[in-house]
Amino acid sequence: MKVLVDTSVWSLALRRNEKSETTAKLSELIKASAIVMMGAVRQELLSGISDEGVFNELKSKLSVFDNLRITTNDYETAADFYNTCRKKGIPGSHTDFLICAVAYNNDLLIFTADNDFTYYEQHLPICLAKF
Predict the structure, then answer these.
(1) What is the three-class DSSP state of 5?
(2) How far apart are the first and last CA of the chain?
(3) What is the pLDDT of residues 55-99, one digit of tens each?
(4) How far apart are CA 128 and CA 110, in angstroms?
(5) What is the enclosing helix (H) or strand (E) of 129?
(6) What structural domains and CATH numbers belong to the chain?
(7) Do 4 and 103 form a contact (C-beta atoms < 8 A)?
(8) How many CB atoms lie within 10 A of CB 96?
(9) DSSP for residue 54
(10) pTM score, whole prediction
């Protein structure tokens, strides 16, 4: 099964001294070609890097992952998910709900280190990767 990797996991893996089960699992998924990339996640990873050399190096490393095509249906599903969670008192970012929608609409697992997704999972038809 393909896995949509959230920014939080990538961020852990990109820290120079970070070695964990999460980063080890990401490495396994990359080797197995099981990773799916979203443009919004790529943008979050590259945003805020002021050093042009570091920016270009990361951009180059991420270029091996094609962006999953996002459709109108994905955006509409994300808005519906946002509204569903908001009614339950669960806040979240638009990017988080877009990740949920894309994963749901494409039958993908979500690999995240962000605990907010555990709240979303209680009310949305998403599946978090349990490694």
Answers:
(1) strand
(2) 13
(3) 999 999 999 999 999 999 999 999 999 999 999 999 999 999 999
(4) 5
(5) none
(6) 3-62 (3.40.50.1010), 72-121 (no CATH)
(7) yes
(8) 23
(9) H
(10) 0.94
